[in-house]
Amino acid sequence: MAVFTDVSTQQAQALLDTLALGELQALKGITAGIENTNYFVTTARDGEPHEYVLTIFERLSFEQLPFYLELMRHLARKGVPVPAPQPDAQDRILHTIAGKPAAVVDKLRGGHQLAPDQFHCEQVGAGLARMHLAGQDFPLHQDNLRGLPWWRETVPVVLPHLTPEQAALLQAELAFQEQLAPSAAALPRGPIHADLFRDNVMFDGLPGRERLSGFFDFYFAGVDSFLFDLCVCLNDWCIDLDSGRLDEQRATAFVKAYESVRPLTGAEHRLLPGLLRAAALRFWISRLWDFHLPREASLLKPHDPTHFERVLRERIAKPWHALESLP
Ligand SMILES: Nc1ncnc2c1ncn2[C@@H]1O[C@H](COP(=O)(O)OP(=O)(O)O)[C@@H](O)[C@H]1O
Ligand SMILES: N[C@@H](CCOP(=O)(O)O)C(=O)O
After folding, report:
1. Distance, CA 130 to ligand 1 centroid (Å)?
2. Which fold, 118-317?
3. Where would I find the H helices in 104-160?
4. Aminoglycoside phosphotransferase domain spans which residues (predicted)?
5. For residue range 83-116, what is the model confidence (pLDDT) as tens digits?
6. 190: closest CA among 150, 143, 145?
């Protein structure tokens, strides 16, 4: 259950008034998610129902939030399907509820594709590349806060909770990524989503003919290599969830669709196997951290860290190279 902050109908209506979004019809806490408090909000305006998501930010501060919210606004204005944050009369998109930062964004239509096929992977691949291109002129900067410096800081904190074999793997992989870092830093970069898993994407439409309706949950976004973002996706969208094995057919389709919008450079192709490992390491570390050092407020079942240990072992044992696109 991920409602950390209770919002009354009066508090919600007061915010909706500020944003001129209409009369509150329904306010429903969302149980999914582990970072923030989210509510589905239905309003009536001009005789029509409108649907939004109200997020109360539990971990991110007023100072940190403009990067994420402005990025969503920037992408939405450029036609990338992401939830647009709703502005007040002064064009402000960061608001306050119960003394905490809050935002109201458009509700995306449809639902998740938790067992994606090639057709879904192609749509996410092409959409990811469009998002990368659209973000290139975004003027704000924030590093990916779950990048190498965070891994360096967090690995020693989780090490005491691991078996000797796990600890050896974690340390060896961190050392490998330290070596890779200078080449990775030279790759094409810009704002990335950095957490575009199956549960952060919506599809809408009839079964078998679903269309991508949008990407959401940008609260791990930051500036990093586009290839890292692609690898985060491949490690979630294109794998067999039980074994962590990459499904080559889906992975190839994903990369091809990405490249139909933004072809990868030679350096990106060369570093793909290493960054698939980096993307697995990033989520192994964060899941270990959430599992062994849970936040006081969290009543949630943390994600299984051993999943990304398996994914990492797979990527090390079987490096995967996407076929280079023809010139
Ligand atoms: N803009 C949105 N449109 C539609 N559904 C959303 C939107 N934002 C969040 N949700 C729903 O809320 C759930 C939790 O949101 P999420 O951002 O994953 O939470 P958290 O930030 O706590 O991890 C999602 O799985 C999705 O069902
Ligand atoms: N995708 C991450 C967890 C991040 O949680 P989210 O609900 O905010 O997407 C993982 O699987 O470890």
Report:
1. 22
2. Aminoglycoside 3'-phosphotransferase; Chain: A, domain 2 (3.90.1200)
3. 118-135, 148-158
4. 27-264
5. 999 999 999 999 999 999 999 999 999 999 999 9
6. 143
Report in angstroms the alpha-carbon separations of 21 from 12, 38, 79, 229, 254.
11, 17, 22, 34, 38
Name residues whose C-beta falls within 8 Å of residue 302's C-beta, 6 or more positions apart in sequence: 34, 287, 290, 291, 294
Which CA distances in Å does 53 have to 14, 24, 83?
15, 12, 9
- Which of 225, 221, 146 is CA-nearest to residue 181? 225
> What is the number of the ligand 2 atom nearest to the C-alpha of 36?
8
**CB-based pocket (< 6 A), ligand 1:** 2, 30, 32-36, 38, 53, 83, 105, 107-108, 199, 216-217, 219
Q: Choose which CATH entry (3.40.50.1820, 3.40.1190.20, 3.90.1150.10, 3.30.200.20) describes domain 9-106.
A: 3.30.200.20
> Which residue positions in the chain have pLDDT lower than 50?
1, 299, 326-327
